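User: Okay, second chain of the day. Same drill as before: sequence in, structure tokens out.
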Amino acid sequence: MSTADPGRSRHQAPNARGNSRIPNPTPAPTPTPGSGTPAHRPFRRKGPARLVGPRHERHMPTAAQLPALGLPVGDDGVVIGVDAERNPAVLGLFRPEALHVAFVGGAHAVQIIALRAAAIGARVAIESGRPRLWSAMARAAGGAQPCVTVHQVGRIGPQGPGAGSPVLVVRDCGARPPRDRLAPAAWQTTLTLLPFLDPAPARQRIGAGTGLVGLQRISPIEARAASSVLSLSGEDEAALPTLADELTLWSAGTSRKYVLLTPTPAELDLLGPPRRMD
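Assistant: Same drill. Structure tokens below.
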């Protein structure tokens, strides 16, 4: 026995042309309030589903909150010791332009700088009339790689510096070094070691063209000459003749900083304790 609704199986008789059609449906009556007939909802074509992500607040800082996003990143370079606040003192030796550094003092501090420059991937070329003073350090720094080389005065050739291979040239040629044969180059820093500061050519040695100057303990006459060239304060001029062996004053433009040299145990074994005289 069929359970289909007989009303759904009825069709209209064929018309005069022989076509059979399903008649247009009769519009549903509009329900009246209280009649209990459900309201007719018009058919709507649904579009593609739209994915909606989690409803969270947007993480967008205000202008007043931007300073809090700053990261405590210091300068990059060679750490040579600590300053008066016991913070690391960093020398930014390698730059996209040539840099000249003058250091008035002993070779010990410059050897520390050379070792640490090699440790961060720089090549070090030493031009010196005292090769024995530098040979042990060169062997210890390079190991199996010749990253530190020693040359006789006037026998150093072009080093080919680059951003991926910066070069530190150390000139240990006395208080009146001869003219530098190397042309200035980007990513190449020349550090001239002066055992003492001759007052007559002081401006030529540590004046114009020198981006960074380091001073160990010097005599009052040398301190007066350095103060005249570098525009040091009276307090700094008076302090220079009394500095301890491990203390150095660094000057760059109008900036001044005292740095305490802090050699590592390995550096102490190789070079000995800090000293002013070689």
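The two ends are 121 Å apart (CA to CA).

User: Thanks, on to the next one.
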